[in-house]
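Protein modeling request. Please complete all fields; requests missing the sequence field cannot be processed.
Requester role: graduate student
Desired output: 3D structure, token encoding
Chains: 1
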Amino acid sequence: MATTARQSEAQAQFQFTKQPYVEDVGPRKIQSIKFSMMSGPEIMKASEVQVYDSGFYDQNIKPKKNALLDSRMGPAGSKMGIICETCHGDFANCPGHYGYLHLCLLVFNVGYFNAILNILKCICKSCARILLSEKERVSYLKKMRNPKAEALQKTATAKAILKSCKPKTCSRCGYINAVVKKAGTVMGIIHDRSKKFTDDTDKECKAALSGTRIQILNPVRVLGLFKRILDQDCELLYLSDRPEKLIITDILVSPTAIRPSSFVDGGRSNEDDITSKLNTIIQTNASLRQDLDGKKSTSQCLGDWELLQVEVAQYINSEVRGVPLSMMQSSKPLRGFVQRLKGKQGRFRGNLCGKRVEYTARTVISPDPNLKITE
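Delivered output (375 residues):
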């Protein structure tokens, strides 16, 4: 009886609900808010289940385990009578729970691709130190640490640092750094050192370095460089968090509450665009894992790796440019997260800012609201 009472008290204390959580701790003052990306371990910690199986339902029309509609992430629909296995709530009461999808190879985050490119332009591609002299580094670091400096001033300082980090030989390790630019692929980055070798370069050096003139900076190598960047150099680049979080190792699978499933005539299920794209990513990830385990050719592995990069990029932003026609899954692109948020039909302008309120008027020709009525 005592054990049952303690269990009921614990359930009452940690009850899942869709109501906003309000902690009764008295008045407090918020000092700061920090926005950053979630790392792989943080994604796993926030998740309830690992998703690795493709498909949606089994033969008994029940959500498959470790798939995108797993009941541990919440009920898949309102008319199915499914109960959440995590909080034991139905579709109306379950707030939804996250899952995670582990990628067998890393990919770039399309939303921060330009930021990744700028960081690579500023660091040595061998020792990962910033391409500034010690005198310049100390001077810029003093400006970034100035307590009176505002955000706009620090942004201007970061832009000045980016201009100062020109392609040159590293003063610390002697590595020859050249131009870093986008490759011809969708999310490719190359380190072009061909212009650094002139006619005066020693013949033996040319022969030894002939295979390293144009280097491909894939996500695995970029992650290795980012992990070796010093915290002081992160301050110079005006980064609020570690740069290795810009490389995707795990995908956070959203709860089924925001991508519900429904059945149409004929017993077929109609899935959300996010669910369909995640299913494609799972299939591509499984194919790439089979290629790596089966020791397939390098060209085939690289092709599947590039396809995985494209699928993850379209999962975030379905309007990403430069996708080859051979990698287009269908003529009608699926809506990614960016398309759900931006624009007139997005969440902010279409839902949050478009509320209709009684006893109010709307005008589109009003002047400055700060003016007085008599002005």
